[in-house]
Specification:
Elements (H helix, E strand, L loop, with lengths): L3 H7 L3 H11 L4 H21 L2 H9 L7 E4 L4 E6 L4 E4 L9 H11 L1
Helix pairs in contact: 2-3
């Protein structure tokens, strides 16, 4: 209550908190923390998609969103792979190309 700006900022984590509580409550604390980190990345990607400027650029194929997790203990970077629904090592991640971007490049080449 004495830090209203912090309280307001923390409301952005409410969706992640509920997802973790409802789906990962049986995990040990270290695995629950990892799940919370990964779920928060996905929630924030969804939040970005609701912004009109982002939605417009995504529809045009001018923008691609990527969800990454940096593991500070090891220096590893993991990317969310929509095809598998999992975070995979960045070196193994193949960036998807949107159909809109392919159509735009094809039209420009013609």
């Amino acid at each position: 209550a004495s830090l209203p700006a912090v309280a307001s900022w923390l409301t952005h984590a409410e969706a992640t908190r509920r997802i973790v509580r409802d789906n990962y409550g049986d995990l040990p604390p270290d695995r629950m923390l990892a799940a919370a980190i990964e779920e928060n990345v996905l929630v924030q990607l969804e939040n970005l998609r609701t912004l009109p400027a982002v939605a417009s650029r995504l529809a045009k194929g001018d923008l691609h969103l990527h969800g990454w997790v940096y593991k500070i203990e090891t220096g590893e970077v993991f990317a969310f792979d929509p095809a598998t629904g999992q975070f995979v090592p960045l070196a193994a991640y193949h960036y998807p190309t949107s159909e809109a971007a392919v159509r735009r490049r094809t039209a420009a080449a013609i």
